[in-house]
Amino acid sequence: MKKREPKIKTFGFFNVDKPSGTVSSAVVNKLKWLTGAPCGHMGTLDPLASGVLPVGVGNATRLFDYFLEKKKEYIAEFTFGVSSDTLDSTGELVFGGRIPSAEEIVQTLPSLCGEVLQMPPKYSAKNIGGKRGYELARAGIEFELQPKRVRIDEMELLEQTEEKTFRIRIVCGGGTYIRSIGRDLAESLGTNAVMSSLRRVQSGAFTLANALPFSFFLNEELSIEELESKIIPTESVLPYPTLCLNGEGWERVYNGVAVKADESDGLYKFFNADGSFYGIAEVKQGLAKLKTKLC
Question: I need a labelling partner for 44 at 20 to 30 A (CA). Which of 70, 178, 260, 280 fits?
Answer without folding.
Answer: 280
